[in-house]
Description:
Layout: H1 2-18, H2 26-31, H3 35-56, H4 67-89, H5 93-113, H6 121-140, H7 145-157, H8 159-164, H9 166-175, H10 179-197, H11 200-208, H12 222-225, H13 227-245, H14 255-283, H15 288-292, H16 296-306, H17 313-336
Helix pairs in contact: 1-14, 1-16, 3-4, 3-13, 3-14, 4-5, 4-10, 4-11, 4-13, 5-6, 5-10, 5-16, 5-17, 6-17, 16-17
Amino acid sequence: IFCIxxxxxxxxxxxxxCYGVLIKTPAIEDAKVDTMVFQCYxxxxxxxFSLLIWIASDVQNFTFSYWGFVFAFLWVICSLTAYNAxxxxxxxxxxxxxxxxxxxxxFVWGTVAFSxxxxxxxxxxxxxxxxxxxxxxxxxxxxxxxxxxxxRFGSELNEEFIHKKSEANEANADQQVGVGRxxxxxxxxxxxxxxxxxxxxxxxxxxxxxxxxxxxxGSEIASLAFLPSLSIGVAAVTPVIFLFYFRFTIPEMHLxxxxxxxxxxxxxxxxxNFCSMWATQFLGQTIGFPLTQTCIVINGFWGILYFKExxxxxxxxxxxxxxxxxxxxxxxxxxxx
Length: 337
């Protein structure tokens, strides 16, 4: 049975690793689609496909909970900040930062709020420290650090070669994210991690009851029974945030450009979310959900190999090191928690 839930983790990793790829399609970037506009189609995809998953599961009873609105609010905020983080830092670095911080936030929720058992507190704390170090490394790969390292160590090793490649070095330096954009993207990624790490809290509260709410009393799996509330919440909360975001005006919606990418992205995310909820329910908030965030490996492949967001030996080396450190921290938490 344990292996089955590990497979749920694997599917969630693949889905979460690919769901944001369509955000960076040339058509969407050329049209300069606003974050909130894309979110509308994305939310529609999540609401529709989450409901289809619930229907396909043949659950006998319909259960509604206001925790679905809490989930939806956190998720929309998470998606908006993630969209901005990807635009500012790229599809490799942005998700790496928020995935690492997601694990930290999720671990804190599980241990402090829900009293999930921790077998080895010092080991778990070391895992958190390793995770935070990995987050810092991921951010550094898009800062001026790789250029400084290359200038310092490269010149010491082969000064003549550096002179011959001066034009290439300048081009690589120009590709580094500007300071303002870098700080903005990092803040957006950290906010994404804060919201993303809290996403499973409404499900736990729906299932077990918390903050004065009654626990779920049905015979179905709670993660399945929660899906209608999630869909209704997303469908209700998104328009409200949309109106406040645009101050009650209607922008250009780019229907032909965004409709299909938004719905497909929603399908990917709904699949990943469903699998991560199963993993969280049976492996625990402390272990199950954090493991799904190792999707940063898939994000990294897309960012480096397809989008060419990180180029040069030093930036790629720092990013790969960051991924290894973050996954090592996640494994440490999984073993010690």
